[in-house]
């Protein structure tokens, strides 16, 4: 890393250092050949690899590989180092592959971004092994974990990751989105921007790694969430499934290369198939042997998940736990009353959607009508032809899949609509906010001024407008630079917000000029307020490393009355008062009233 930071270093010197570590050489050759796929000649030397990858990529990859090698184990008892690196490696490959598909960055930068996205956890486990172990053993949810980290250690793994990646020189454009990868609801970027897509991509990669390495009790829901996130990024379901299958293969290959333990998982397409097309059937019949025959057939031939019972009461409790898509029921004895079971299922909100098929002793009209009157969805006569039963249930399974797909699409559309509404809100907020000071901008100020004018005209309620201009601001920029100038503007804006009343609106009017719109404030009280603001600014210097910069401001104030015909005239009066303050020596307040301007001298 030190060598790569030296501008005088040559590719040959970097390659010589790489060659001193055979493991690093092999890994860089592998990465270079992955990038050179399809070219006639493979990359076979360290010099070629460094040339192919570039100095910055070599630097990031060397950092990533050395961290994996050096911190494969540690002293934090409840920190699973092997699982951490397996999870991080899967995120790295996911961010790289999906990021390349979405054209969000260079492959090597994306790989390092994914691999190190949670390095703050490793840092806390290394720096505070005892304390962090005591936190981890509690098995906290992500948000609660962050809160406990801050409470016990005065920092958290998100802040540590940010600090380390900045120290190691990762591009800022990749570091910032990582702050939101655990909580996409907190993303501050406008929907669809590159930063928003990066943050969402890293969150999607986190969810993929969690799905593979931390399977939940409801994998179908996890898969649905993954497809929703992929859809938000514009990834088609089939393309996404194919890409995840490819990256799982790469994950296994990288695991072998880096000596990281990886799970032997089936293909993602197979996991999707098994969880999204699984169909549950409860067979409830008084003839236990016949029920088992049906259950075995549906399980072996149809690949459905089945459960059997010969008791109506048990059938209800099993339906609540098992949550079947369909119930097959037959019998009318004391233990099993299929008609009563059907009525009970259809009368409860949690089970009324379940498809109920009654197997009848014969198909005479009376029995069929009674079955449908009890709430049955379908019926078949006994003896049952199993292939006919399979066809009926297959139709219902297809309906369930269509319904689930519709639910996913509906949820996706709802989330897209919510995202669009939030984006519009953020864009509106951005259009009305000054980005440097976070105050209302001139456009928002004019809107507020128009509303205040309307209220004053209607109810004859006075209001005042105060203009504030920082004295000699150009000199501050020229002597100390624009960064200090920006800090001075922020300092003054904070001072104005503290001095303003709750109902006042503070705006950055332009450059070093601010405006405060003060409803229900007469001229006398407004002049006192302006003087208080002037004193607060003068008593609040900006401190640099070597000196303090004393700041003063000139202020002008005017108040609306029935003689003022327009907003422009009112602003003109305020400007006259401000100019009078500047002509009066600055660091004072000019007051405009009844076509006359006077200056409040500094005591």
Mind explaining what this structure looks like?
The structure is a single chain. The two termini are 60 Å apart. Helices cover 59% and strands 11% of the residues. Strands 7-8-6-11-12-13 form a six-stranded mixed β-sheet, sandwiched between helices. It is of the alpha/beta class and 603 residues long. The longest helix is centred in the C-terminal third of the chain and has 46 residues, at 386-431.
Q: What topology does this entry show?
A:
Layout lengths: L1 H4 L5 H9 L2 H14 L10 H8 L1 H16 L10 H21 L5 H9 L3 H9 L1 H8 L5 H12 L3 H12 L3 H4 L18 H20 L5 H14 L4 H22 L9 H9 L3 E6 L2 H14 L3 E5 L2 H11 L3 E5 L7 H10 L7 E6 L4 H9 L4 E4 L4 H46 L10 H18 L3 E8 L2 H8 L1 H18 L5 E6 L2 E7 L3 H16 L3 E2 L4 E2 L3 E7 L7 H17 L5 E5 L2 E5 L3
Summarize the structure.
With about 600 residues, this protein is α/β, with parallel strands linked by helices. Helix content is about 60%, strand content about 10%.
List keywords for this structure.
single chain, 603 residues, alpha/beta, five-stranded parallel sheet, flat
Measured by DSSP, the beta-strand proportion falls in 5-15%
- Helical content class: 55-70%
Q: Span between N and C termini? A: 60 Å
Q: Please give the count of helices.
A: 26
Question: In what order do the strands lie side by side in the largest sheet?
Answer: 7-8-6-11-12-13
What is Rg? 35 Å
């Amino acid at each position: 890393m030190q060598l790569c930071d030296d501008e005088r270093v040559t590719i040959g010197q970097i390659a010589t250092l790489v060659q001193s570590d055979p493991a690093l050489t092999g890994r860089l050759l592998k990465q270079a050949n992955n990038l050179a796929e399809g070219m006639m000649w493979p990359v076979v030397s360290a010099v070629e690899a460094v040339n192919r990858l570039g100095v910055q990529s070599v630097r990031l990859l060397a950092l990533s590989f050395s961290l994996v090698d050096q911190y494969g184990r540690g002293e934090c008892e409840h920190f699973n180092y092997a699982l951490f690196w397996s999870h991080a490696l899967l995120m790295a490959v996911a961010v790289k592959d999906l990021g390349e598909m979405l054209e969000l960055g260079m492959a090597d930068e994306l790989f390092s971004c994914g691999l190190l996205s949670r390095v703050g956890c490793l840092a806390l486990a290394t720096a505070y092994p005892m304390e962090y172990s005591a936190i981890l053993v509690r098995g906290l949810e992500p948000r609660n974990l962050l809160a406990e980290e801050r409470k016990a250690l005065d920092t958290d793994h998100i802040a540590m990751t940010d600090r380390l990646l900045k120290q190691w020189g990762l591009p800022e454009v990749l570091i910032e989105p990582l702050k939101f990868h655990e909580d996409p609801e907190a993303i501050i970027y406008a929907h669809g921007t590159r930063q928003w897509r990066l943050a969402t991509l890293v969150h999607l990669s986190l969810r993929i790694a969690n799905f593979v390495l931390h399977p939940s009790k409801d994998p179908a829901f996890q898969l649905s969430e993954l497809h929703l996130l992929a859809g938000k990024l514009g990834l088609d379901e089939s393309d996404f499934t194919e890409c995840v299958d490819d990256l799982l293969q790469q994950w296994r290959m990288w695991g072998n290369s880096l000596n990281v333990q990886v799970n032997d998982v089936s293909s993602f397409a197979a996991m999707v198939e098994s969880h999204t097309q699984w169909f549950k059937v409860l067979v409830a019949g008084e003839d236990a042997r016949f029920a088992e025959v049906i259950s075995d057939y549906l399980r072996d031939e149809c690949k459905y998940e089945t459960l059997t019972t010969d008791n109506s009461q048990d059938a209800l409790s099993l339906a609540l736990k098992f949550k079947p898509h369909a119930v097959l029921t037959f019998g009318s004895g004391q233990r099993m009353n299929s008609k009563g079971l059907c009525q009970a299922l259809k009368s409860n909100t949690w089970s009324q959607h379940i498809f109920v098929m009654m197997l009848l002793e014969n198909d005479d009209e009376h029995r069929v009508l009674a079955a449908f009157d009890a709430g049955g969805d379908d019926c078949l006569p006994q003896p049952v032809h199993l292939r006919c039963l399979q066809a009926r249930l297959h139709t219902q399974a297809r309906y369930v899949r269509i319904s689930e797909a519709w639910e996913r699409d509906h949820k996706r559309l709802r989330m897209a609509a919510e995202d669009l509404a939030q984006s519009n809100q953020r864009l509106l907020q951005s259009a009305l906010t000054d980005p440097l000071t976070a105050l209302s901008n001139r456009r928002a100020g004019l809107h507020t001024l128009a509303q205040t004018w309307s209220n004053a005209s209607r109810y004859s309620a006075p209001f005042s407008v105060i203009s504030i201009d920082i004295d000699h601001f150009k000199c501050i920029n020229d002597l100390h630079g624009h960064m200090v100038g920006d800090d001075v503007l922020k300092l003054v804006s904070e001072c104005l917000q503290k001095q303003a009343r709750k109902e006042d609106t503070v705006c950055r009017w332009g450059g070093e000029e601010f405006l405060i719109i003060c409803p229900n404030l007469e001229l006398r009280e407004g002049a006192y307020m302006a003087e208080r603001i002037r004193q607060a600014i003068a008593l609040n210097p900006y401190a640099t490393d070597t000196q303090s910069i004393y700041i003063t401001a000139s202020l002008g104030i005017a108040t609306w009355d029935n003689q003022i015909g327009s907003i422009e005239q009112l602003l003109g009066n305020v400007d006259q008062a401000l100019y009078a303050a500047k002509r009066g020596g600055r660091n004072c307040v000019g007051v405009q009233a009844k076509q006359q301007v006077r200056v409040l001298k500094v005591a």
